[in-house]
Amino acid sequence: MRLKSAIAVFVLGLVVLFLGIGQKTFWAPPERVSVALPSSVQQAPLTVVDPAFAKFGDGKVDLDIKGDGAFTVAVGRPDDVAAWVDKTAHNTVKGADAEGKALDVQHVDGEAKAPNPAGADIWASTQSGNGDLKFAWSAPDQGDWSLVIASDGTKPAPSQLEFSYANDTSTPWSVPLMVLGGLLMLGALLFAFLFGKGGSTPAKATAAGSASGGGTKTSSSKDAVADAPASDAETPVSDDKASDIAEPKAGEAENAEAQDAEPKDKPSAFRRIPAIAGALSLAVVGALGGVAPAHADSASPSPAASAAGSGDLPVVTDDQLKRILSSTADAVSSADAAKNAKDLGDRATGEALTIRTQNYKIRASATSHPAVAPVAAQKLLTQVVPTDRAWPRTVTAVTQGAKNPTPLILTLTQKSARENYKLVSASYLLPGNTFPAMSADGVKTRDAKSANGLTESPSDAITALVARLKDPKGSAKTKFGDNTYFQQTEELKNNVIDPKNNGADVKPAFDFKLVGQPDAVYTSDDGGAVVVADLEFTVTLTPPNEGDTVDLADEAVSTLAGTKKTNKKVTEHFIDSVTLRIPPSGSKESFTLLSADRYLTGVKLG
Length: 606
Description:
8-stranded mixed beta sheet, 34% helix, 5-stranded antiparallel beta sheet, alpha+beta
């Protein structure tokens, strides 16, 4: 009966071992899962792939996209994608079911058209296809990312999409099953082996009892004889063996008596083997079962990835900023070469657009008039990228191209998700200045009217700058050090006052004021602030008496005025693009005018 039990346990162990090996071989899950967009999905101009899909395949998903004609695949932050998609009808791929057999797709009705996503600044990266594209989606850096797939924004987005990703091939129970099966088989073999040895021991005890010639039989010896197989009980014993057994040594007799005195219900060795094997099996299964499969860790999003489009992330990536600067530099360079503002496209706005438009107009006649500072994307010396994700968004970069005598501070603004970044300010770093250190992980913008943590609020600092320009000897003088911008301003005033330039007895007047609001206010690493702003500088020339004239000796002024002499009041308008540093509170430093450039933008008569 016990031999049959050992065989049953061995067979059970073999089955368990087979199950464990099967999970690693012929029952193992496929290495990759492929799932396609159902043909029944309603058409829309945009298809959005939710960031949750990136959790499949450890964040590496391959897309096989087929469509009619050209299309674009764009990668962007979830909040940026949502803002760009806006009210346009779209399909959102949320993910796939656990078996990878079906996609979870949600259709949202809306407007039938959207802008062409190709080349939009909002995307971290884009890839174009024509008819067929195999797109490898791997998140560019920390945080969550979404995909947008579209044709040109007016046609339906490609509808043949197949997603494939690495499957979870972990089989957490395969090793425990193999170990358990092996232990059961080993336990069965030990059981059978010890059972065979245990059957001969009672036979020897019976022979010893016969050779001793009598003595009262103990209950343990009776049990031993009763338990012994008949074949073993009838085994003949030689005289030598009988004498050895009949005359045991004293120590052996004591041991035999001690064994006889043991309780009848004490487990024998072969009975303890299955219990020991089972305990070992449970221990191994418990230890291995408590270890999560490797895929579980890799499939879980990292802390950075869980912050979907959070305010702690810069509004553009490093590569994205370089692409924006390069596109801006190309457009501006083309416009500068042709002296045609239309070539600026959508890469300049506000005062930057006005400055270049008027400069091209002046230089068409006054060829000796200086050009506006050329914009370069390389080399990039400093980048200032905020983490505040509300629109409008503003970024600043310090670059220096081959034609720039000193580094150039460029500030660009994006008014909405569907618009590109446009240049709003460009000014040369003044000699002897260094741009403050800015965090590469993104900076905080601040309220221009708040003085929290600063010696003065940015608004008050700009007011002090205006006062210093109006009255170089006034109280604001102590808040600034001297610089070439202040020197050039005084030189211009003196030239205007000089009678030989504008006519005798002409009464000049000068004024400065802030244009609108500052373009940007950033917090620097030292706790101070950097302010980018535009000032309007006006020079007014009034004839001394009725009938007197004003001579417009400056060729640039006469070009915009359309005359070299007038008896009307003349107002010359200049734009001064400036960058100002404000020290942190507690500092004894003065304000630093980091950069400044002045350009004539208009002349008004009367």
